[in-house]
């Protein structure tokens, strides 16, 4: 018998020890889920007097990759952003709490690891030791604020199905956002995106197990795109003059204990491309940008960071990391 796709759900939990699976403590609304165990098969091609190339497949190392996406919820978005940045400071004695996230530059510089619990009716698979390699945020004036995430983890294992629970916090519509460029409101931005990336290297050694010796996070890069209603040459000149203005993408709604917000602040956003478009009845400017490392966006671990993310929600301190 077929099994229903829409009964699937995704849970996440913060690991105390990297690679040791934990139960889900939060559940992330998702639109797509793409789990993939990566078993390396090693060819036995030793010649045996026959006109044959491959005689066997030998099991080699195994790990997994996981991708998922959906609408941005101001509470669950913290798992992805904290997971790729690593440095988080939380203020507030009660809801709403404010979580300020930057690139972790202390110790070994490694972000936290999580366990994803993927329920798909047939079974629940846990992906332990998971580290985020990419988190993308997209918005448009006529759509939703959305996210996509990619991660690397240890090979999946089966587990008991958790019981999902969700907060009543709604996702954010694209029109709610406010964009600021160079310290001034930019009400003419029709859509945009911001993508945080860092390589996760799967380190294999001869240690008697198929599992990786380590999953290791590399340096962070942040880049994105903006589409502007071109009112004048200001932002085209930002590109030509290599001006690197600060860029803010801020979404907030609610009041009091129910106040929520998602903010991305980049103190130095260098325009790497700008193209004037005439495909519509009004002139547009398409901009590519890269956020540059600076000390202003750094967190409590010091050093440099290209971005500072701020979330306001009812999630208590020490939850995400």
Task: Outline the structure in words.
The structure is a single chain. The longest helix has 9 residues, at 77-85. Strands 1, 2, 3, 4, 7, 8, 9, 10, 13, 16, 19 and 20 form a 12-stranded antiparallel sheet that branches. The model has no long low-confidence stretch (mean pLDDT 97). The chain has 321 residues and is mainly β. A hairpin with a 6-residue loop joins strand 19 (269-277) and strand 20. The two termini are 41 Å apart. It has one domain (9-37, 59-162, 172-313). It has helices at 77-85, 234-240; strands spanning 9-14, 26-27, 32-44, 56-71, 86-91, 97-103, 114-119, 124-140, 146-153, 157-159, 178-181, 184-185, 189-197, 200-203, 214-217, 221-229, 247-253, 260-266, 269-277, 284-291, 308-313.
